[in-house]
Each structure stands twice: as C-alpha cells, then as structure tokens.
Design a protein that fits this description.
277 residues; alpha/beta; Rossmann fold; 10 helices; AB_hydrolase_1; Pimeloyl-ACP methyl ester carboxylesterase; AB_hydrolase_fold; AB_hydrolase
C-alpha cells in the first residue's frame, strides 16, 4: 500500500486559487477529507493516522488557503475556510465525503456540515470545540508562552501544547515529532508568520461567535480528545457530545490536545469502525 510520506504533492485550481493537497488510499468508496490545526501544513498530519485510515479509505489531506503550498491569503474567519473547503471538494468532483477535523480543522468541519449537510456522510471531531466554546478565544494567550518556551528550550512547541507534562505525555510527544520528520523529500512549505496570525484571528473570532445549533447536525459524529486539553479545553468535547444528537465521545486518559496522536493505535481502529459502521 502507498504511504503518506511518499504521497505526491498535488494542486488544484479553485476559482483562481491553487490549493495544495495529497491523495492516497483506495479509489472506491466515500473519500475522507482531513482538516488540520492552526499553522499546520501537509507535513503536520500524523503519518500513522493517515496510513492507518488509508488502508480502507481514500484520504484527501489539504492545505488551507494561504497555508503551505496553497495560494492566496489565509482567511480570518472559519466561515471563509469552510466555504473554501466546500469549493475544493466540489472541484475534486466529490458528491459526498467523510470529514475529519482536528483543532482548527474541527471548527471548519462543523461549519461545513451546517452549511452543506448533504455533502458530509460521517464526521470526526478531534481536539476541538464549538463556536463560542469555553476558552477558545484564549488559544493565543495560552499558546504564546509555550511557543516561547519551545524556542528557549530548542524544543518543538507542540511538545508543550499538544501533550501532557507526564512521562507518558513526553514520550508520546517525542514519538509524534519524530514521525512528522519521516518524510525527507518534497516537503510542504512552512506557514508564513502572517498566515499564522491570520488563522489565530479566525480562532479568536470563533471563540467569540454566538453558539451554532449543533442539534441540526443529523449525521453520525465521533468526538475524541485527551482528558487534559489546554488549547481547546476538554469540556468543549463534552459540550459537543451533549448537543449533537447520537454522537459518540472518546476521552483518552493522561492526554492533551494531541490525544489522537498519543493514542493513534487505539484511535485508528475506532475511527475505521465508526466510518465503516
């Protein structure tokens, strides 16, 4: 089977803007579109999760507008990111998709489902929260000190942002960051400081936005997070599970924002079972 570290960098024109993406897995069935976190490019998708899901599903991993190799200017609203993603899916010729959103990607994924309910068959929300959710407008305030800590200690800030400070958390962080380095050739472009800040503006606006009617989401939904998410507090996962009819909730112990990365060995079978149910 093909592996994510070898997947070619592709591009498609959507209304005059080039969007970068990678495409792997079987060609039949409903494709699974992946939406990633603040400042993430194609190389920030966990290859263990992508490869595990690609055993049974066609995977489309994308760069947002203005991020990585995608053209244009990064949007400052979740609304604009969702509209971009819908247009991209249509440009790729898909009539229906499954959707996995992590962190910022989970904000976008919720908005996509509410905007285009017939487009999405099944939805996976990880490390994320609803519009107006607890603590979301403070993502920047929580993150900046830990980003600086990473710079001062010569460690990737995701060590502190995505994982707990326990022995298990630090071991998981090290393993995750090593996986992100496995691809050696044709890596994506790093995000610019401007795009990074524009995405943060969108996150803050989402945190201050009026709550959406999540009761209107009538498709199967799987929600997953760590029990100690400091970026998008775990209480938001419980809130979404209460508000989305029939949703499933998985909370990983001694895990943070990157709970699905720490527990990828458990998350992938759970996600596959959910998608194939």
């Amino acid at each position: 089977m093909p592996y994510y570290i070898d997947a070619p960098n592709l591009s498609i024109d959507v209304d005059g803007t080039a969007f970068a993406y990678r495409d792997l897995g079987p060609r039949d069935g409903v494709p699974l579109v992946l939406l990633n976190h603040w400042g993430a490019v194609l190389d920030n998708f966990d290859p263990r999760i992508v490869d595990g899901l690609a055993r049974r599903h066609r995977i489309i991993a994308i760069d947002y507008r203005g991020i990585g190799a995608s053209g244009g200017t990064a949007p400052v609203t979740i609304d604009a990111m969702a509209r971009d993603a819908i247009a991209l899916v249509h440009a790729l010729g898909f009539e229906q998709i499954d959707l996995l959103g992590f962190s910022l990607g989970g904000f976008v994924a919720q908005d996509i489902v509410l905007k285009a309910p017939d487009l999405v068959r099944r939805l996976i929300l990880t490390g994320t929260g609803p519009a107006g959710g607890t603590g979301i407008e403070r993502v920047g305030a929580v993150s900046w000190p830990l980003i600086v800590k990473g710079l001062l200690t010569l460690r990737d800030p995701k060590t502190f942002l995505f994982f707990t400070s326990t022995a298990n958390g630090r071991q998981a962080a090290k393993a995750f960051l090593e996986r992100l380095k496995e691809r050696k050739a044709d890596r994506d472009k790093e995000p610019t400081p401007s795009a990074f800040l524009r995405q943060l503006k969108a996150i803050k606006a989402w945190g201050r936005q009026a709550p959406q009617d999540l009761g209107g989401i009538r498709i199967p939904v799987l929600i997953a997070n760590g029990d100690n998410d400091i970026m998008v507090p775990t209480v938001n996962s419980h809130d979404m599970a209460r508000r989305i009819p029939g949703s499933q909730l998985v909370i990983y112990k001694d895990a943070g924002h990157g709970g699905i990365f720490q527990y990828h060995g458990e998350f992938v079978p759970k996600a596959l079972a959910f998608l194939n149910d």
